[in-house]
TrEMBL record:
It holds the Pfam family MFS_1. It is a multi-pass membrane protein. The chain crosses the membrane at residues 21-39, 59-78, 87-106, 112-131, 152-174, 186-208, 263-282, 303-322, 328-348, 360-384, 390-411. This is Major facilitator superfamily (MFS) profile domain-containing protein. Keywords: Membrane, Symport, Transmembrane, Transmembrane helix, Transport. It comes from Trichogramma kaykai. One of its GO terms (molecular function) is symporter activity.
């Protein structure tokens, strides 16, 4: 069935197509995160082998986000204009191949130049991955009716938790039984295989879809957008939560390696990240129930996001003072559980604020949200280099969390502003 609106007409997925694309996008997001988190898993091993300092490791870990930041807005814009599935496919080729060939880049350059080439390779990988989420939210906006979009996008983004767990389980197993080279090659090969699958279904979808007709009314009114406080609340809240998530994602393997070396790496890299899966679905169920029982979208988004910030902030304080590995794992698990609620709040907020420009707005939001990926992760490395204190790192994250929670509570909204 073809659906018309005042600027273009799109083919909406059937129930069967929703199921297929749901599995495809869920698995793709899982592989995006498996690719992304494989390097933090391997940095303690490669760093020891290569003699990297904490600053060197911080530069390599943060370099991914330099590239990730650059392509968010462009990815959303191109997806809104050309179709999310096309941009998604092109991007997948890039991040799949750059993961597959990273071992060659690490091995085939001298120690002096290796850091620079690894940084460049990670930037390229990040640039291609930066397109993934904006193209997904654009695709869901183009192919789903409005009432289905937020729930579907929340579901497919849960792949971030699945991918992180995949790194912790499969990645840790391969690392312990083979080499760090094999970890990257396994994830790279599976990612390339997924790209072929996406290309097939993208071609099939394009054959059944109508041609999207664009007019000037489809352009993002950026000047109007930046005058709206809810837009800035969304950006700031996302950036503050990402600061917590990205710093922990990048540095936790090193934290446990340095502080509690007796803890098995697979436990550290799997158990905490398992917690985000149930919290993602719990957040989604609570969100849907709140709206059905009469709560406004604004109130619902704030309740779910505040739950996220509160769980993270409280347990960051506990993590800063603990000296027991079991407690450290527990607190980290609760922090990661808190991040799962983010998927049903700020992550879907662009669809609330600007439903006709969700890909572009999400791209802008994720551009700002990616800044902690390179700034926060690199700053954590500097703090460790000069203070040798993980507690200082955790307190810094706590302060940023409080700022984000306050701003979103005061200015956040679930109403359309465009």
């Amino acid at each position: 069935m073809l659906t018309y609106d005042n600027i273009h007409f799109n083919y909406h997925w059937t129930r069967k197509e929703r199921f297929k694309w749901g599995l495809i996008l869920l698995s793709g997001t899982s592989l995006v995160y498996a690719s992304r988190t494989s390097v933090p898993l391997l940095v303690p091993v490669i760093g020891k082998e290569r003699g990297w300092s904490k600053t060197d490791s911080g530069m390599i870990l943060s370099s991914f986000f330099w590239g990730y930041t650059l392509t968010q807005v462009l990815g959303g814009y191109l997806s809104d204009r050309l179709g999310g599935q096309r941009i998604l496919t092109v991007a997948a080729v890039g991040w799949g191949l750059s993961t597959l060939f990273l071992p060659e880049i690490i091995d085939n350059f001298s120690d002096y130049y290796s850091i620079h080439f690894i940084v460049l390779a990670r930037m390229i990988n990040g640039a291609f991955q930066g397109v993934h989420f904006p193209s997904m939210i654009s695709l869901t906006s183009q192919r789903l009716i409005e009432s289905e979009r937020a729930s579907f996008f929340s579901l497919v983004t849960s792949g971030s938790a699945v991918g992180t767990v995949l790194t912790g389980t499969l990645g840790s197993y391969v690392l312990e039984n083979y080499t760090w080279h094999t970890v990257l090659r396994v994830f790279g090969l599976v990612s390339v295989a997924w790209t072929i699958l996406v290309f097939y279904y993208s071609t099939l979808l394009n054959g059944r879809s109508s041609t999207v007709k664009h007019t000037s009314s489809n352009r993002l009114p950026i000047r109007e957008l930046i005058t709206k406080p809810p837009f800035w609340a969304c950006l700031i809240g996302h950036a503050c939560q990402n600061n917590c998530f990205f710093v922990l994602l990048s540095w936790m393997p090193t934290y446990f390696h340095d502080t509690f070396p007796e803890v098995k790496s697979w436990i550290v890299n799997m158990v905490p990240w398992l917690a985000s899966l149930p919290s993602i679905f719990i957040g989604r169920v609570i969100s849907d129930k709140l709206i059905k029982t009469g709560y406004s979208v604004t109130a619902t988004r704030k309740i779910i996001q505040t739950t996220c910030f509160t769980l993270q902030a409280v347990n960051l304080l506990f993590l800063a003072v603990t000296d027991a590995p079991e407690k450290a794992i527990l607190y980290l698990t609760l922090i990661i559980a808190g991040s799962g609620f983010h998927n049903s709040a700020i992550i879907v907020n662009p669809s609330d604020l600007a439903p006709k420009h969700s890909g572009s707005v999400f791209g802008i939001m994720n551009t700002i949200g990616a800044i902690p990926g390179f700034l926060g992760v690199y700053l954590a490395g500097l703090i460790l280099q000069h203070t040798h204190s993980w507690s200082v790192v955790f307190i810094h994250i706590f302060i940023v969390e409080i700022i984000g929670a306050t701003v979103y509570l005061v200015y956040g909204s679930g109403k359309a502003i465009l």
